[in-house]
Write a structure and sequence with these properties.
mainly beta, Pectate Lyase C-like, 2 domains, 2 helices, 34 strands
Length: 392
């Protein structure tokens, strides 16, 4: 019986190794560190991997050039059950410099026809070759991105992006949106994005995103957006943004069930239209960003707890929660603001168009601790009396 078990285990091990095939892009014609276009060679490698039922596509050390030839979106389509793996930052997939003259270059994503599942992209360096110093409408190329997972017709499920350096994109370094489910972005580094670092959208049925352990480095261009950015969520549920280091802001709106936890942010945390939102244990320093440091509108179910929120003289308000306007009748509703350390030039906490708000246990450094307008059912332990006024 023991012999039989040993034979079966050995057979299983051999079978597993046969299934885990590796496909080196240089064996399909990709040549590093020259001016040769490697797009077709890498596409052929991915096709061979798909025909084998999945495996690992290896990008060895070196720089490999990619270009857009037709209407590809994305250029490299990663099939199901496939890992695209490099050897770290020395394995570079780089856009041809022609990227600076046209739009809609998207480097890596799921197949346009059919969607995909069980994809890993890891240990790579993605270079968008952008030469534009900032966003200028009509001049800066639009939608030129590194990762682009988006499909209006088919599901993209179980995608992990691990230890990827993405830089020099005139659009987003990484983007996930329509029909995406179970997306993990872990321990990635971003630099020199003109639009967003990590962009997350959604659709009905999109769910379960995790972004953790990521950071952006000092930029030599002018970013036009956030380090982590959630918009056009369209029904996205269950998002966790935790333990990231953000030189730009976190913008996160339109999600049902989101946790923003343990991040360090130089900029702001901003969000509109969320339900069941938890923001806790973050350090948010406004830096050179003006206005309120934390701004949250039209929320239903908000916990803002145990954060350090630090404004400067250019930040009149530390935390601003609002709702009920001519554009949206949802108040900022069911809100808890507790145990935060908040510093601002004029008002620590400002409420406008809110309902069922509790403010407790905060340490507030501002000439005025609390200002509220159009607010119903407020419970607060601040020493200042309530004040009424017209909507701003």
């Amino acid at each position: 019986m023991k012999l039989y078990t040993a034979i079966m285990l050995a057979f299983a091990a051999v079978g597993g190794s046969l299934q885990a095939k590796e496909f080196d892009i240089t064996q399909y014609g990709a040549t590093p560190n020259d001016d040769t276009d490697d797009t077709t060679a890498i596409e052929n490698t991915l096709t061979a991997c798909a025909e084998a039922g999945g495996g690992t596509v290896l990008v060895p050390a070196g720089t490999f050039l990619l270009s857009r030839r037709n209407n590809e979106s994305p250029i490299l389509e990663v099939p199901s059950d496939t890992t695209v793996r490099g050897e770290g930052a020395a394995s570079i997939l780089k856009f041809d410099p022609a990227v600076n003259q046209s739009n809609f270059w998207r480097m890596i994503g799921a197949p346009v026809d059919g969607g995909a599942k069980n994809i890993v992209i890891r240990d790579l360096h993605l270079d968008g070759s952008n030469t534009h110093p900032k966003y200028v409408k009509g001049e800066t190329p639009e939608h030129n991105a590194g990762l682009w997972f988006y499909n209006k017709l088919h599901v993209i499920e179980n995608v992990s992006v691990l230890n990827v350096l993405a830089e020099n994109f005139s659009g987003d370094c990484m983007a996930f949106s329509y029909n995406c489910r179970a997306i993990t972005v872990r321990d990635c580094v971003l630099r020199n994005f003109i639009r967003q670092g990590i962009q997350m959208g959604g659709s009905p049925g999109a769910r379960d995103y995790l972004v953790t352990g990521c950071r952006d480095l000092e930029h030599s261009v002018q970013p036009g957006g956030s380090t982590i950015h959630v918009e056009h969520a369209r029904g996205l549920t269950n998002v966790i943004i935790e333990n990231n280091q953000c030189r730009q802001s976190i913008l996160a709106g339109g999600v049902d069930g989101m946790i923003i936890r343990g991040n360090t942010v130089t900029g702001k945390i901003v969000g509109n239209g969320n339900t069941n939102l938890v923001i806790r244990d973050n350090i948010v320093k406004a830096g050179d960003k003006t206005g309120a440091v934390v701004q949250l509108g039209y929320t239903k179910g908000l916990i803002l707890r145990s954060n350090i929120i630090e404004g400067t003289k250019d930040n009149p308000v530390g935390v601003y929660v609002w709702g009920t306007s001519r554009y949206n009748d949802q108040p900022g509703e069911d809100v808890l603001i507790a145990d935060n350390l908040i510093t601002a030039a004029e008002t620590a906490i400002s409420l406008n168009g809110t309902k069922d708000v509790r403010v407790h246990g905060n340490t507030l450094h501002a000439p005025r601790h609390l200002l509220h307008k159009r607010t119903e059912a407020l419970q607060s332990d601040t020493e200042e009396p309530a004040s009424d006024g017209a909507a701003e």
